[in-house]
TrEMBL record:
This is Cytochrome b-c1 complex subunit 2, mitochondrial. Transmembrane segments: none annotated. PANTHER family: CYTOCHROME B-C1 COMPLEX SUBUNIT 2, MITOCHONDRIAL, METALLOPROTEASE. Keywords: Electron transport, Membrane, Mitochondrion, Mitochondrion inner membrane, Respiratory chain, Transit peptide, Transport. The keyword Transcription regulation does not apply. Pfam families: Peptidase_M16. Belongs to the peptidase M16 family. UQCRC2/QCR2 subfamily. Its main location: mitochondrion. Residues 16-158 form the Peptidase M16 N-terminal domain. The keyword Transit peptide applies. InterPro entries: Metalloenz_LuxS/M16, MPP/UQCRC_Complex, Pept_M16_N. It is a peripheral membrane protein. It is found in: Mitochondrion inner membrane. It comes from Saccharomycopsis crataegensis.
Amino acid sequence: MFSRSYSTAAKGLKVSAKQTEGHLSNLIVKINAGSRYAEKDGVAHLLSRFNFQNNTHKSALRFAREAELLGGVYGSKVSRDAITLSANFQKEDLPYFVNSLADVITSTQFKIHELSEVVLPTAKHEVAVASADPEYQAVEALHALAFRNGLGKPLLYDGVSKATLDDIKAYASKAYTASNIEIYGSGVDESALVKFIGESSFESLAEGSALTDAVKTQEGESRIRSANGNAAAIGAPIAPAEIGLYETIATFLNETTNVKAAVHKYSDAGLFTVVAADACPVAVSATIKSVVSTLKSGINASEFSALTKTKLAIESESSPYTAEPTVSSVGEFSLGKFSYVAIGNVSALPYADEL
């Protein structure tokens, strides 16, 4: 696996940074507290939407206007592994954005009116958009089929398990601690970054304890009726050591077939997915049957190793907190057990035992 060196900042925070040419810097605060760790489904998603709301140092409006005046762009997103804050800005504005991101982590006020007027409406809109995409639905269903709890939990807040403001605040108190936070800078001097972190409210973080979740895998089949399109997908949980292999298989499939293959990488596991999607269920059926048959009969994807290495190197540059897997030459590969989901006009889509 790709290794990365860290410096130690305030409260023992892990800090990694590199200098780049040009006038722009990028700062990422990764909180290892994604959807897999929350006791209530979707709370991590709601917590991520509270980021950059009012805190004890400045209002959301003030921060937005100041960032715009400085030419900065910021964001917050959630994954199954982490909540990630990011900021892009002019190099000379590093102290401002270090302080601002620290304030988000340490002093967000969690106002009830923000939950009802901003956070919940934004989250519901994101869920509605995602749920209208059969490919997203397929990948979500495959996670639920392939993993128990943890990684099998929904990524976004669907409202099935109602979350209150107290639930969000309680999760923030567990998540936003020094043990769960890593900071990455690009276009940044590492010694300067460590210095500014030590002078910011990051210094007031509680030590806390790292959130944990044991991976438990399973298999299953699901059929979901939907009028938003058709998709048929397979998914197989994989160990970290297998990620490089499956990345090469995904490259092979994406280059030679009409499916979308991907490896969803997590801190201690991965999920290999293959999705066939089309407005026509007959076309989806033909595609998924053909691809699964090919994978079961055995393939040699070694000629795609070099392309995979290039792709992963590019991804590593844009996502510095993602370890770059080792890609070696791929010999004969045959697909083993997998989970399966059909979405759309399921009466016209195959069952798992027909693949």
